[in-house]
């Protein structure tokens, strides 16, 4: 009776080399995915991690600069390992990172389709984020979400005519007396903002393409139902 040559042979031992080969194969498989899927993957990462991918390979280098959407929150500004950030360092950290983000945005090849920012701005001047949002608006953002506790809404937003969907929350809404933007806004969501009746009415009147309006827990609004 013929013997079975592989019956009693020990299983092949996994080596460091074969582990690295398998990881490389996995990486190559991911790299072969279309840009649209890789953009989706990067959009789920923290901005720090997403930016690092530009150094992975030539295939990954152009992906972050052409990422159609980006979300910035407190973890983008502060080290997540710091359980108790020094409040005296926070303004310096935010301003420093804003400058870095502006450099990144200026190097982009395409405009953001969607840009979300959610940062606690207590203790900072109202215009500290203006330079960053100015770059985003000038580049032609279509969907913009701003949630900044204690922050006055950036004036560049009111002069942008590419925004189609605008969400503003947890901030003080001060509308300039003269507006030139917001004409393309189809969806406007205001949540937990402090805004005077006149400012709110003036802002809404400039949203010529308005199809959807949501006002949720807004403060100082008294006579909106009379308009």
Automatic annotation (TrEMBL):
Residues 27-81 form the F-box domain. Pfam families: F-box-like, LRR_At1g61320_AtMIF1. Residues 1-18 have a biased composition (Polar residues). It comes from the Eukaryota. Residues 1-24 are annotated as: Disordered. InterPro entries: F-box-like_dom_sf (IPR036047), F-box_dom (IPR001810), FBL60-like (IPR055294), LRR_At1g61320_AtMIF1 (IPR055357). PANTHER family: RNI-LIKE SUPERFAMILY PROTEIN. This is F-box/LRR-repeat protein.
